[in-house]
Design goal:
mainly alpha, globular, transmembrane helix, transmembrane, membrane, Golgi apparatus membrane protein TVP18, golgi apparatus
Length: about 150
């Protein structure tokens, strides 16, 4: 299934996965860019970097199999197999990122907004009864395979 077909699928789980990948990129890029502040924003930049790395393992489970990780970490990432749990982790990460705005408004706001949108998409997928489906473009089963029984 092509990328455009996945966008036309109206499956919020797919939308959330693509927004999750955008969140990972923004977390890592903006986390590094904001490490050079003098204020307490440095702490939130470091937290955003950690969030980005955790999200890599949550959104791309193949990496957990390729990279040597502990069984506890593998169990931790496997706990986010449902849309509701993914929505929860994304909203928690968004809140942590937004808390950095207390000290200074930075570009980390963009990462927080995208994480909040990702949480909203995962929540809508859960409410609408969409099962978590990984994108076929990223090596997952895709929407077509999940619809065919």
């Amino acid at each position: 299934m092509a990328f455009l077909e996945e966008l036309k699928s109206r499956n919020f789980s797919i939308y959330a996965q693509w927004l999750g990948l955008l969140s990972i990129l923004l977390d890592i890029i903006l986390g590094i860019a904001n490490l050079f502040h003098i204020k307490l924003v440095v702490l939130f930049s470091a937290l955003t970097l950690v969030e980005g790395v955790l999200l890599i393992f949550i959104e791309i489970p193949l990496l957990a199999r390729v990279c040597p990780v502990s069984d506890k970490f593998q169990a931790f990432t496997n706990a986010f197999a449902s849309n509701y749990y993914r929505a929860l982790i994304y909203i928690l990460f968004a809140v942590v990122t937004f808390l950095g705005c207390i000290f200074q408004n930075t570009s980390l706001i963009a990462a927080g907004v995208v994480m909040a949108l990702t949480a909203l998409c995962y929540l809508l997928a859960g409410i609408r009864g969409h099962e978590f489906t990984s994108s076929a473009t990223l090596g997952g089963t895709g929407v077509a395979a999940s619809m065919v029984v």
